[in-house]
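Table S2 (continued). Query chain:
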Amino acid sequence: MTDTKITSVVAKEENGNIQITFTIPYPLVSSTQEKVIQDYAKEAEIPGFRKGNAPIEKVKGKIPTESLIEKSLARILPEALSAAINENRLRPAIYPKFELISANENEAWQIRAVTCELPKVILPDYKKLIREGVIKTPKEMPKEEKEQKVIKILLDNIKIGVPELLVKEEVDARLSSLLQRIEKLGLSLEGYLGSVGKNPEKLRGEYELQARNTIILELTLNEIITDQKIEIPDSQVDEAIKASSADIKLAESLNTPEQKRIIKSVLARRAALDSLITLI
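Corresponding output:
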């Protein structure tokens, strides 16, 4: 019997990242490539043949090697990843990044996936921390200042080992957003950095600190949501979407199950933070 079983090896790193190395038997690679080539053949336009009627060998010769590998892995990896996650009881925080290690003819292919898990958060007596940390705070302090005090207390006292991959993802997203804003203003990154007196290294360092603190705060508030059994009704989510109705495209983009789930999470964290502010 031909062996087509994919094997995987999981390695957890000290920085919180998780590596999953897949070994894909060549018989499975070969059969998958045949299916990919057949799909190409249906749309292929080869001189001398009607569309979709060219011989498979001629179609195969027209497919770039990189494209054939990419399309084949796109068919194989989702199921392999799901099996590895279930077998090892992993809880990936982000979709893995895949790296092709080897893809030689007539040999098993090897692919490495890199992801990370959300760290476990152990809450201290956070209500006591807030009360003690702001015992001398005047009652008339604006809500915004109280909020910043609460956030600082949480960040100073709750230590969470955030996976580096998670921080990198957040930093890259912030940098991408910044570049888009700069381009809209007709500026270059170098020009912008010069105007604010920073270099790329300093900017990335600042973003890394901000990203780490943001992740820690969100994870902490998520635990507080669970601890306080905070629930956001669907009606409140609908009200938040309705508030953006002035921008029709924005309102439409928010009115999806995934976006509603995100909005509900944001509102729940807001409610958790507000509950801490009332302790001051």
